[in-house]
């Protein structure tokens, strides 16, 4: 490995969220090319109170850090120490995320090659189910000086590294390290610092080509990880390679949680029409089967289009299809599985009205076409066949706010009416503004319907009824 030095590092913090919690102690073991190790540590004044639980876990009290330097005071020397080093930590995303955030607040841009020893242990010992530091102490006979103190834990990681060098053959260890350290090569048109501020939070990312041509829109609960995965794969997958070659600019929009990311992705794909997105593109001929039962007459299913019917408020609507061909194909499959008559369904004609359909001759029809089965019974079996495709009617009188609680403690309200996503707000003022600007009849979207109906069924969102509020067209 071509690194000037290895840095084995551990942090103690006031909590688990790098966006709101702070570092209380830094410990590291710096190892040069000759294998000489230098130990360094410092308490850090976090500027906030340390929770009692954390004090009990680490033994670091508010009194201990009161006179300690702040991170800003340590930042310059620490930043210099970490340059040209391989950053090695146990559950490295935690430590690296905290340091990047702390450096950013102190006015420094920090970026380093990172190796996670949890992932390394999993890769080398796949038969083992647990890989936390306490387990590694026992498994590899490491010698702890203390636990949950930064320098002591950093030293344990250094000990683990040395044990691997003794226990694992080089022809196994080195390829494993190489695989874990494979770094995405940035596309040639992107500035080198493009990914420096990309957060590892839920959200949507947008790839643009030359002249700001929309190339691709994606979503993830870990934005940074997902974007980087595109570049890790660009030498393996033709699609990723083409995307990488065309990419000139990256934009991202953070969301509170996954559902907000899903809704925003579906909305942006339809509005921007990126050339590499095939799914979620606008379906101009969205259609559905509708059953009418007038005065006991069991008519054939009728194909209705979203441009003519309000699917969110229409009863007896079954399935959402992007084309007439897909709708008819699905109905034919159901007919075959449930022995329904294609003539009765309106999918086939016949030369003479008193002759059996072709399906009857193949024992795929129970004879409704020639009076062998009552029309009411055939209709009942059709309802059973279609039941799994039924489109749910909108269960509220008008627009509602769907509240999503994020892992960071933030809250967002998704404004929805008639299964249509109208936008997201993080304040009552923004919500009111959204409602005032929303169209009287938003376009029904199949993907948004699926996202919202699934989320509501699983109770992932809290419903806030907007009583007395109507969504009107501002024009």
Q: How does this structure look, described?
A:
- With 475 residues, this protein is an alpha+beta fold.
- The protein has four domains: 5-180, Nucleotidyltransferase, domain 5, CATH 3.30.420.10; 203-272, GIY-YIG endonuclease, CATH 3.40.1440; 287-389, no CATH class; 400-465.
- Helix content is 36%, strand content 20%.
- It has 16 helices and 17 strands.
- It has helices spanning 52-58, 62-66, 71-82, 92-105, 117-124, 133-139, 150-167, 170-180, 223-232, 238-246, 258-272, 324-338, 358-361, 375-386, 428-437, 446-457; strands at 5-13, 23-32, 37-43, 85-89, 113-116, 203-208, 214-220, 249-254, 287-290, 293-294, 297-298, 302-305, 317-321, 400-405, 411-417, 420-425, 462-465.
- The strands form five sheets. The chain has a five-stranded mixed β-sheet. Strands 16-15-14-17 form a four-stranded antiparallel β-sheet, with helices on both faces. Strands 7-6-8 form a three-stranded antiparallel β-sheet.
- A hairpin with a 2-residue loop joins strand 10 and strand 11 (297-298).
Summed up:
This protein is of the alpha+beta class and 475 residues long. The protein has 16 helices and 17 strands. The chain has a 5-stranded mixed β-sheet. A 4-stranded antiparallel β-sheet has the order 16-15-14-17, with helices on both faces.
């Amino acid at each position: 490995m071509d690194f000037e030095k290895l840095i084995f590092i551990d942090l103690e913090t006031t909590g688990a969220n790098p966006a709101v919690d702070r570092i209380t102690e830094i410990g590291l073991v710096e190892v040069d090319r000759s294998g000489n190790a230098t130990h360094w540590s410092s308490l850090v004044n976090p500027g906030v109170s340390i929770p009692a639980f954390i004090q009990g876990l680490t033994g670091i009290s508010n009194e201990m850090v009161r006179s300690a330097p702040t991170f800003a005071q340590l930042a310059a020397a620490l930043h210099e120490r970490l340059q040209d080093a391989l950053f090695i930590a146990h559950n490295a995303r935690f430590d690296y995320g905290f340091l990047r955030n702390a450096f950013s607040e102190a006015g420094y841009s920090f970026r380093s090659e990172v190796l996670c020893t949890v992932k390394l242990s999993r890769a080398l010992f796949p038969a083992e189910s647990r890989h936390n530091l306490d387990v590694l102490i026992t498994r590899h006979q490491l010698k702890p000086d203390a636990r949950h103190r930064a320098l002591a834990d950093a030293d344990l990681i250094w000990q683990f590294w040395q044990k691997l060098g003794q226990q694992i053959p080089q022809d196994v260890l080195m390829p494993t390290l190489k695989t874990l350290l494979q770094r995405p090569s940035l596309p040639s048109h992107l500035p080198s610092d493009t990914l420096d501020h990309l957060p590892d939070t839920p959200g949507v990312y947008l790839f643009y080509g030359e002249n700001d041509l929309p190339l691709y829109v994606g979503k993830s609960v870990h934005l940074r990880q997902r974007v980087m995965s595109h570049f890790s794969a660009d030498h393996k997958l033709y699609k990723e390679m083409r995307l990488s070659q065309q990419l000139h600019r990256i934009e991202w929009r953070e969301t509170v949680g996954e559902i907000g990311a899903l809704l925003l992705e579906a909305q942006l794909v339809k509005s921007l029409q990126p050339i590499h997105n095939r799914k979620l593109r606008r379906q101009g001929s969205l259609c559905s089967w509708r059953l009418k039962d007038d005065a006991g007459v069991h008519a054939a299913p009728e194909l209705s289009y979203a441009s003519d019917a309000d699917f969110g408020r229409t009863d007896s609507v079954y399935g959402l299809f992007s084309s007439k061909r897909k709708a008819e194909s699905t109905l034919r499959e159901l007919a075959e599985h449930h022995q329904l008559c294609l003539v009765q369904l309106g999918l086939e004609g016949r030369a003479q009205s008193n002759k059996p359909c072709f399906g009857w001759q193949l024992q795929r029809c129970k004879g409704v076409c020639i009076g062998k089965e009552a029309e009411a019974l055939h209709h009942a079996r059709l309802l059973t066949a279609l039941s799994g495709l039924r489109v749910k009617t909108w269960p509220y009188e008008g627009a509602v706010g769907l509240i999503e609680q994020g892992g960071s403690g933030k809250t967002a309200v998704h404004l929805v009416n008639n299964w249509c996503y109208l936008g997201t707000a993080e304040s009552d003022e923004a919500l009111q503004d959204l409602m005032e600007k929303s169209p009287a009849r938003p376009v029904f979207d199949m993907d948004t319907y699926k996202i919202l109906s699934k989320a509501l069924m699983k109770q992932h969102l809290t419903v806030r009824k907007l009583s007395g509020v109507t969504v009107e067209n501002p024009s």
